[in-house]
Design brief:
globular, about 25% strand, 4 helices, alpha/beta, Transcription Regulator spoIIAA
Length: about 130
């Protein structure tokens, strides 16, 4: 079992440092809560100069609230991430698949290596490689 150290906890937002990456569980929640979670994630990721990150999303109201992930990538690219930075997305609810696919396309445009995965295990294997 992977050990993790909590960094930030809020309504619909848990951010932790694991052995190999920073992990954020975002949602379900209202638009403002989801957006704030992505902002907190970006802040922690940039402050800690993370090389690997895992975003696990849940949506029960409107999955488009999670477009904030795409916007967060713009902020990360502008601030600068390590050259070997990798970002994995896992959609735990079906409505997030297209949203995270959009974020992956945006990441590519910004020069950030990102992929969406079906399972957390697959995402963690890719992050560790």
């Amino acid at each position: 079992m992977t050990t993790s150290t909590p960094i930030h906890q809020g309504k619909g937002c848990n951010i932790a440092q694991t052995e190999g990456h920073i992990r954020v569980d975002v949602g379900p929640g209202l638009a403002t809560e989801v957006q704030e979670c992505y902002r907190a994630f970006v802040n922690e990721c940039l402050t800690r100069q993370c090389a690997r990150a895992l975003v696990v999303g849940y949506a029960d109201l409107d999955p488009f609230y999670h477009l904030a992930a795409r916007d967060a990538l713009r902020a990360m690219a502008l601030a600068g991430v390590p050259a070997n930075f990798r970002l994995a997305f896992v959609a735990k609810t079906g409505g997030l698949i297209a949203v995270y696919d959009t974020a992956v396309v945006e990441a590519s445009r910004l020069g950030i290596e990102a992929r969406r995965f079906i399972t957390e295990d697959d995402a963690e294997r890719w992050l560790a490689s």
